[in-house]
Design a protein that fits this description.
The chain is mainly α and 91 residues long. 80% of the residues lie in helices and 0% in strands. It has one domain. It contains three helices and no strands. The longest helix is centred in the C-terminal third of the chain and has 28 residues.
C-alpha cells in the first residue's frame, strides 16, 4: 500500500512542476503540453513505485524523494522535448 503512496507522490511532483512551469510563463495554457507533462508524470510514478517496491522501509524521505523525482522527470522531459523542437527543421 505504501508503494501506491510513493507513486502518488511522484505523480503530484510532476503535476506541480507542470503547473508551476505554466504559471511562470506569460503564454496561454496549452492543453497538449500539459497532457504531455501528465504522461511523463505517470511514467515517473510507475518508475518510482517499481523502484520502491524493493525498499525495505519507506520513510518520509522516500516520499520527498519520489515527489522531487517526479518533478525532475517532468522538467527533464520538457527540456528534452524543447531542445528537439528547436533543432527540428522548420517547414
Amino acid at each position: 500500500m505504501e508503494v501506491i503512496y510513493i507513486a502518488i507522490a511522484a505523480f503530484f511532483g510532476g503535476a506541480v512542476a507542470a503547473l508551476l512551469g505554466y504559471l511562470e510563463k506569460s503564454k496561454p495554457f496549452d492543453v497538449k503540453k500539459f497532457l504531455a507533462s501528465m504522461v511523463r508524470s505517470i511514467f515517473a510514478a510507475a518508475g518510482f513505485a517499481a523502484a520502491f517496491n524493493y525498499a525495505e522501509a519507506i520513510t518520509a524521505i522516500s516520499f520527498i524523494t519520489a515527489f522531487l523525482g517526479g518533478s525532475g522527470v517532468d522538467v527533464l522531459g520538457n527540456r528534452i522535448s524543447g531542445a528537439m523542437a528547436a533543432r527540428a527543421p522548420s517547414k
